[in-house]
Amino acid sequence: MDATVDDGRSGSKATERPFSSAALHRVVPLLVDWYRRPDQFESFTRYLADKGLTGASRTLVVSSLLLVVVVMFLTRFSPAGPTTHGERTANLVIIVLTALMAAILATRGSLVRSWSYVFVIYSELGIAAALVLYSNPLAAVAHSVMFSVIGGYIAFFHNARMQTLHLLWASVVVIGVVARIAYLEKYTDVPSLIAMVLLVGAAIYAIPFACQFVFSILGTDALKAQRDPLSGLLNRRGLADEVGLMLHRPFERSANLVVAAVDINRFKTINDEYGHDIGDVVIEKVAARLTQSAGPSALIARIGGDEFILVDRCNDQEIDSLEESLRNTTVTGPEHPVVELSVGIVAAAGPFGSPDRAIAVYGTLLRSADQAMYAAKARQEHAVVVLRNLQ
Fold it and tell me: What end-to-end distance do the CA atoms of the chain give, in Å?
């Protein structure tokens, strides 16, 4: 169905052709935005947890690995499968490694991003290795449909850049393996081979691409709901969700849970004397400086008009670095005077024994950081108060 747009002349509707320049101008920005979006592993994992679907998703991942085990085992009894001693040995190695990967993922406490990457990389290499063991190109093409499973997984848990790499890898593997086997086996039924490649290609490419694009676009509202529109930082809801995920990951013995509360000194005066537009500029600048001062794993949120919270897992040296950076953090600009901050930093040494204990400690640190920030604010100057080894 053609889209209709107002032609701007008489209130009538003009038909917009799907491949017109106007249509392309609408679609291209969406595609660019989709491609640039960050990895969605954390947000989708949290969504599954909120819906009580974590166990179901883990079952699907493990089941996909067990399916590979079954398929690889059945090929041992097929004349199109591995025939030489070396090929059968390689087939057995893949079966054992895949079963081991399934057991690891089934028994882990939680599927973190690093293990998700391991799963994807192993699957990409494992499928490619399995294709090499076929002696019949049609059988190899049929087995390559397993790439669509990985593509679907990436569509929901990761980003478009990883999906692009996956599709390029699948293309190279399928074309290379099929061409090699067809050449070595002197395969003559080229039309059937091309038809099979096109059919399987639709599953490998079209389905994951559609899932990735639609899920990313629909996920925009969920992402915005967790972000402060002015600063781009997390809001209260986003911080609570992200901290929950952080505290469910084990703490190393050298790691501290660190919470910093930050307040902009005399922010109301800036708004009153220079206007809210300048106040917004100050908020954006402070947000940028906090992001520069914090480590890459830090969670930073704007929880009020001029209030910010920073949460991270740091060793003692990194706490010192954060303290020094925040002591030197002031905001300047030609449109407003120097803006100073009041900062309270508190820390508790891990590990905490359990996620529930870590969450309880976080609540204590949040209150203590707020008190430390007010102690800094009482000095009526740019100040940082640090409290360590809280329990």
Answer: 63
